[in-house]
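Before a computer can learn anything about folding, someone has to put a protein's shape into writing. The outcome of that step, for a single protein, is printed below:
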Amino acid sequence: MSNDPGAAAQRTLAVTALRAATQEIVELKQKVSALEVSIAKKDHVTGVLLHSIELINARLNALEDTPNDSFTSGTTAVGGQEQAGNQEGEEDPGKAQIRKKIASEEAAESRVVKTLVNKMFIHLLGISKLEKKYLPDFPLDLDPKDEGWPKDPATSHPYIRFDWAHPQKADAPVNRKAIDEILAFTRVHGSDEAPLAKQHLDAILNSDLRQRITIKFNNLRLGYLTHQKEQHWTVAQISGFIKVK
């Protein structure tokens, strides 16, 4: 190795510059990832807002379809005589529909249902905690019927798996199928897993339960992707340090 002080100084400068460039690349990747997460969160909020708008429109349509006399005291004048608008004890269909929808939305927003949905994800994914570092990858080139697909050791039933990185997100066929399975399992076994949830499950409509499950999927998806990027940064930092050391 040359003992030329000038050459040594140049090597030192080159190493310093390389380290600085590596660090800058890592920081840029972090900024890009932060932007991606921010965009994904905005997409999620937009989806929730659109869902709320759909619910409001559904209520308005129900109100428009409800006869005007259903909002009166219950009597109408026909041929100079007053007749009962509704028989005693009967509820107007329009009002019943609105009441049912409101009860469903309240159930979907309840802590009981949110906690139950979390339990369903944990059970059907076969994990111990619903945290980003525990979320399983999607088994590539495998089918749930294949021997290598993860299965519940107690029942041999295949665990559900999500393709978290799929560009279609919750609309991807594999993810939609997993969401459907969570919904069906919740309907059948939800009250067994959480007896206090029975009343809420009786009230919640499938559309609102599916929306609650989808919201949870979207949140988990963001966590999974963030964790993957964090792991990538760690590897990149270690690799960069080793190369320039």
Observations:
- The two ends are 17 Å apart (CA to CA).
- The chain is about 65% helix and 5% strand.
- The chain has a mean pLDDT of 80.
- The first strand starts at residue 75 and ends at 78.
